[in-house]
């Protein structure tokens, strides 16, 4: 009888759920496609803690970056804040202007760059870093100030201000890519900071393949250490923030805010020297609106993006997915709670004779609409790590870990693979950096194209863009698995591009000795441009390293 009663209860419950399902409209086409982007990416048990100054994971979690990509994104953010990422190296301190060649072993000269200077010291060295050489700012007592070029005024068409306001802000942003010490050290010591060395490394790899295939030479492969971090921050100036209505000069009670901010969801602020013209810098307050970052915890890096909660259109097109930090409203089906990790993009009826369902873009995703609330796990992680525990910034000119403004940011997406297990291309892109092409953005795929040709220039033209255009006429970007012919001429081992381990910073590399305005260098030959061989196994060190052969007659610089 008990079994019969239980069966009857289940049938009645199913009937009730079916009736409720019939009352609810069937998912529209946008909601159906969003299903492929709404997956729960963290496995059960992804509960990191912060103990004795470091993040710890449960024993059952074998590889946090794979098992818990969303939680790992939050712990990566916590670690970067605690390490004061705003003091790290930048593209301008790594791929320096007017670079000098690297010093050879035993060589010490003001005309070359000694990679030993990047090794940790007992304290900062007195003075300024040498001109023309990579450096880590905190290694010196007088590093040059952090500067950004004054953004050019946006000429975006007026219709974008409504349909895609993030694209308009993208034209005004100041983008700074911070890179931690392991990243800077590897780039310097591996001689990857000037065009001659990048081109020479390409040639050395091509020579190796031509002479020694199928055997690989790890010393020629660009492979950053597992603790390397890239941390790209999008800032907007105070003038642009006020113009866009994102901040206010007064608080909720009418009091004056100095500097202006959002009283309900404050922004992290930083004072940066804005370069109006060479030698003409003017300090300005800048506001952190979004972050795109990557940690080399995985061979293809672990990628993640954060957005300020008030960014207009932050979940447009692809939605927002976070299985750890903030819980959204989700849905209740039969008394069970589903989908709290996903905020779908907004839709509306086209209001014409077709009655099509279309994206509704460029509006805020307010907490009242999404139901977002910080999870107990993130609350505990922040508290233990000392993040957002204060009442305000210690100094609005410099970010601080205690600033409660860190709770204004939301994880947009994490990304660890090119495609899903069912072959669907994965997407990750935040509204500011990828403004205008968020719906096709993939950090992994775009950055997989990074790599030099024989001249130290990008081997894959287009820098992640493809020939498809969106309805605004803006380029879309590559996504999904990389194409083999980006790197090798089809059916051959003739190289087109040497993979740079997903690092587009190489675009900032310049020549030690430029060949006029051709974008090429006078010469790519010589021991100071040759790749190092320090990673070859000890029993192989007696073998001769791959040599950079002279250019073929087809090269214009021969």
Automatic annotation (TrEMBL):
Keywords for the protein's UniProt record, in alphabetical order: Signal
Name the record gives this protein: Cytochrome c domain-containing protein
Signal peptide: 1-21
Ranges where the record places region Disordered: 524-558
